[in-house]
Amino acid sequence: MDWDHYDPTVTYDEFLTTEGTPRQALSGVADFLGTLDANELLRRQEAAEAAMAAMGITFTVYDENSNIDRTWPFDVVPRVIPAAEWRQVRRGLEQRLAALNHFIDDIYGDGKILADKVVPRELIEGSPNFRAECVGAEPAFGVWAHICGSDLVRDADGTMYVLEDNLRVPSGVSYMLENRLVTKRVFPELFRNLDIQPVDDYPSRLFDLLASLSAHPDDTVTAAVLTPGVYNSAYFEHAFLAQQMGVELVEGPDLFVEDDTLFMRTIHGPAKVDVLYRRVDDLFIDPDVFVPESVLGVRGLMRAWRAGNVAIANAPGAGVADDKVVYTYVPDMIRYYLGEEPLVPNVPTFRCDEPAELSHVLANLGDLVVKPANESGGYGVFVGPASTVAEQEEVAAKIKEDPRNWIGQPTLALSTAPTLCDGRLEPRHIDLRPFILTGNDSYVTHGGLTRVALREGSLVVNSSQGGGSKDTWILEEDA
Amino acid sequence: MSSTDTLLLSRLAEAVFWTGRYLERAECTARLVQAHTELFLDLPRSVGLTFVPLLALTGSEDVFTELGGAPTEENVVAHLVAEPSNPSSIVASLTAARDNMRTTRQLFPRESWESINLLHLWATAQAEECTNRTVRTGWLTAVSREVQQLTGLLAGAMSHDETYVFLRLGRHLERADMTTRVLDVRATTLLAVRDDALRPYADVQWVSVLRSLSAYQMYRRKVHARVQGPEVLRFLLQDEQFPRSVRHCLTQIGTALPDLPRHEVPLATSVDALEHVTTAEVRALAWDGLHEFVDDLQGRLAAIHDAVDETWFRPEDSTPADAVDGQPLDDTAAAGATV
Fold first, then answer.
1. What DSSP element (H or E) covers A452?
2. A136 to chain B, minimum CA–CA distance in Å?
3. Which end of chain A has fewer surrounding CB within 10 Å, N or C?
4. How far apart are the CA of B135 and the nearest CA of chain A, in angstroms?
5. Quick one: pLDDT at residue A83?
6. Helices then strands, each counted (H, E), chain A
7. Residue B117 and residue A299: Cβ atoms within 8 Å?
8. B318 chain-A contacts, CB cut-off 8 A
9. Is A438 helix (H, G, I), strand (E, B) or coil?
């Protein structure tokens, strides 16, 4: 592979310096890629795609009713992060989740941060993700967001930022695990010669975390993964995690609550469930309390949870901190609860509910990225530099109608990584979603899911919007 | 309880059971179309054999009539092989098996999911070309072989636990059902042959009955006489060792059931059916009463299916919420499986 045509100066490139030489820590990988010609690399890409198809690694796009699964788009060239840098990021993520969990526990408890006016009360109480039904609940260890997927991006100057924290039902971890499996199949020689941190302990870590939440953690724990069903876009992942953890994958109709205790219907009769890893949005988990038409949940679940007879991960109500406006207060939360400075910064963000910042956003729509506060999966995101005047007017009207629901951010020049496009390596923009587990202690995946915008120039990495993914390597430097 | 640490969900047990049925159905139908194609080539045109009997045999007539195609070889074969709206077609059976396995993949060895997935991808892509007789043989043989391989993989790589019992139940019920269907449709048309000129071909047709069930070779090893109706009936209904005989299937069901909790009713139903088959004077049925006998037997197989369904797939619990809802549990549970 030669790099003559490759332009590493679009923005910060993860692989090459602006001079076009491989970054120091990546020289081992660069040497190896150097031994492959374009055909060989293409052959490996095809081998990876064939493996993905055989393994049935799929995801669903919501508007495609006809086809319930698509093969997961995958780029065979790994994204590499030096271990020394990752250690710093990992500490930053643990710090962040500690603060976020303090915050959620505080919001549903004493509300000190609101009383101290660090976070405005109306922001929380008016939030569509605030669940009044959770006030006063006391989940184990004071932890609400047990599983978090935070999105990290690197800007042109090389700084890593947290773009958002997914605290409701973050997905993608199974693709991280499968990507590694496939990469091992297609680049076995690299795993022999380099120290790449393994990722496959995630399911055991997750199971240990879930078991620790049980009211009787020392007894045999029955845990289950609650899925909305086979038509959900992340069903593949739900089944994958249940299988890897050796627990049941359940749907609403499999469950019922009696005497404030959760049971599943088995061929032996009812069996008590101690811990439920729910992959259903909390609005749908209990028709007695939330959306009454929901058939995805189970009547009485909230009662059983509040009685302490079943643990739920993530706890209902945890999504209150998964809001792009609340996000802007996370650095303040870290200072308030932990007395520390944030180790990984937020992307500078304008809150449209503050008049000065609203005017700034409206005046600079052509340069900013504007996002609704409560959407995920890249839906509703407006990218200023790629917009027409008509689109700007349209989004301006929406913002003015409901300023609380919008934020603006500078358009980051997301870093690029070499990606196989039409038979040669091209720089494509990427992000990273590590997963953070929090219980009595915490765990951060070794790397995470790297998503890549496969279209040239595109900054949108979501799989639902034409993105793909890469294996992510945390690489130990030679001792 | 054969094991104390697994808790098989009723919904999953149902999906596994249907996986067993659909895999077997795909294999049986492949065998059937193949055997019929061979018979079609062997018989003189004056016999007037068409592919239409296959529609009745697989219970596909209604859907075929609805779609409105002429009953030509091409159309009937396409209907049985590739038609997605025909629940008995091979492609639909493989799709249903895959869908059921997809919702239960955590219960199966990982390779088995990859295997059904690849089979489904391949079979669906090639199915259209099966109207061509040369392509057809290769495709049908490959489907049978792949399903057999998957069955072998499951037998050799997954624990023979409760989940596996449901797979076996589904497989053997479907297999017994298919054997009775072949006998019913085929043999009754055979019995109707009164024209002496066509008599010689009756033997060929009985051979075809055996071939439809991959029974010809084993029949020859067991029965040292020429192929004739009464012996074929006895072999396919009552032979103890041939794995596609109704008796063998019912014996398998009877030995599998005690591994499940609360098995009393299904077991009693299957024992009844087994006794009925074992004690019948089946040779005489070659001349009279076969259709009625098979009809009754199919009713007994359906009764086993219903007993399995009610015992394990429709668990009762006293959730008052469901009653308030006015939603029968049957509906919600049934929604889980592709029926």
1. strand A449-453
2. 26
3. C
4. 24
5. 95
6. 13, 22
7. no
8. 258
9. strand
Q: Letter for the amino acid at B238?
A: Q
CA distance B92 to chain A (A): 15
CB-CB: which of B1, B114, B318 is closest to A268? Answer: B1
Interface list for A 282-341 with B (CB within 8 A): 288, 295, 299-300
pLDDT tens digits along A361-403:
999 999 999 998 877 666 788 989 888 999 999 999 999 999 9
Q: What is the mean pLDDT of residues B10-26?
A: 96
Q: Do A288 and B321 touch (CB under 8 A)?
A: yes
What SS3 state is found at B52?
A: helix
Q: Worst-scoring range by mean pLDDT, A408-417, A463-472, B9-18, B272-281?
A: A463-472
CA distance B253 to chain A (A): 17
Identify the band that residue A174 occupies on the pLDDT scale cut at 50, 70 and 90: very high
Beta-carbon separation of B10 and A263 below 8 A: no
Residues A30, A15: Cα–Cα separation, whole Å: 8
Would you say how long chain B is, in residues?
Answer: 339
| Binary contact (A265, B105; C-beta < 8 A) | no
Q: What is the pLDDT of residues A225-254, one digit of tens each?
A: 999 998 888 888 998 899 899 899 999 999
* Mean of the per-residue pLDDT values of chain A: 91
Pick from A29, A32, A3: nearest CA to A18? A3
Closest Cα to residue B179, out of B290, B79, B15?
Answer: B290
Please state, in angstroms and as integers, the Cα–Cα distance from residue A429 to each residue in A73, A172, B323, following that order: 15, 18, 54
- What is the Cα A187 distance to its own chain's centre? 26
Q: How does DSSP classify residue A72?
A: P
Q: Which of residues 19-58 of A touch B (CB under 8 A)?
A: 53-56
Q: Give the chain B residue nearest A296 (alpha carbons).
A: B332
ipTM metric: 0.75
Is B321 within 8 Å of A53 when comparing Cβ atoms? no
User: How would DSSP label each residue in A7-60?
Assistant: -TTSS-BSSB-TTSPBPGGGHHHHHHHHT--HHHHHHHHHHHHHHHHHHT-EE-
Nearest CA in chain B to A232: B103
**Chain segment A334-358, per-residue pLDDT in tens:** 999 999 999 999 999 999 988 999 9
- Count other C-beta atoms under 10 Å from residue A51's C-beta: 18
Three-state SS at A437: strand
Q: What radius of gyration do chain B's Cα atoms show?
A: 21
Structural domain boundaries of chain B? 10-315+330-334
Closest-CA distance, A238 to chain B, in angstroms, reads: 10
User: Taking Cα atoms as reference points, which of B230, B282, B104, B97 lies closest to residue B174?
Assistant: B97
Residue B201 has pLDDT above 90, yes or no: no
Q: A58: which strand partners?
A: A71
User: Which residue, A328, A312, A334, A324, is CA-closest to A250?
Assistant: A312
b/e per residue, A344-370, with b = 16+ CB within 10 A? bebbebbbbbeeebbeebbeebeebbb
Q: How far apart are CA B29 and CA B266, in angstroms?
A: 27
